[in-house]
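Go through this fold for my students:
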Amino acid sequence: MKTKILPPTNENIEYAARILKEGGLVAVPTETVYGLAANALDKTAVNNIFKVKKRPADNPLIVHISSINEIPDSINIPEPAQKLMDAFWPGPLSVVLPKPPEIPDIVTAGLDSAAFRVPSNPVALRIIKSAGVPLAAPSANSSGRPSPTSAEHTAQDIGGKIPLIIDGGHCTVGIESTVVRIQNNKVHILRPGMITVQMMEELGIDTAECAGIADITGINNTKENFKNKDPMDPRPRSPGIKHRHYSPNAEVILVKSNKHNKPALEAFIAYVKEHGGDRVFAMVYEGEQNMVENAKAVVFGKRSNPKSLAHSFYSCLREVDNQNGKTLYIRCLDEKEMGSAVYDRITRAANNKTVYI
């Protein structure tokens, strides 16, 4: 199959909508990452998402709609969820709600809940509206790979497997949405993103503190140990929290400093110089790249600016792969500096491989 990469003209938006309505797949841009979209009401089409991505069947999908008014009337929306939607939709926030009967079980991995999101990307909204159906749309990459933030990234992974990629340019956010669930009238974060606990609490919304799969901490998330599964039901309620994610072909190793008498940057540069070599890369922050020796530098973004880091992270991982990198060392700052969303992504990309120097 030849994959067309087309700009978001009105004609091409209608073309994408026809493919979706007929049960096909289309890669669409959102503000977070590019999504591999199918009609969420068509279980055969959704099953093809899993086949193309080689995605585990127990990893639920997010349902994308163009307006809060498209949430089925059968769903009772809790008050905290309504507040979040009013404040952050359209935007990078997914809300887990009871599953309506019209959503096939394959979308939710058999769960009794479904995650909904209204993206803010105007191209995505035009495609959803034109298709006239909700779209199930996980990231448009091979499962486990770095998420695509451009049409080029998308084509690298699934080109030749789908008929169309709509090129909406580089994603403005660059990492996946925050996913939340409401329990006992409190918000539980299932996956961290750029909509943070601090932002929620500023709205007067209660957040909950309880044990779960991921320990989410940091300057942008003021509570610890958010719950992303039920004690009686171990299945993940959100994508991106169970399986290894976001990893390039290169081995990713986080480097942290535990020496109080040596600056973290100085220690990192010395470590890379000693352990570098052919096909070794070092991910550093803006202004640090000229210090790297015995490795190729990749510029992460501006230090202590989570938005900058999120925007460039997946592109950096793919740049290393494009240059046939073997090892990537990442100078890992304190989670409070990086923000919990970025910290979560880099630890998953490294599969928790960390060295302390």
Q: What stands out?
A: Residues 251-356 form a domain with the Rossmann fold fold (CATH 3.40.50.11030). The longest helix spans residues 306-322.
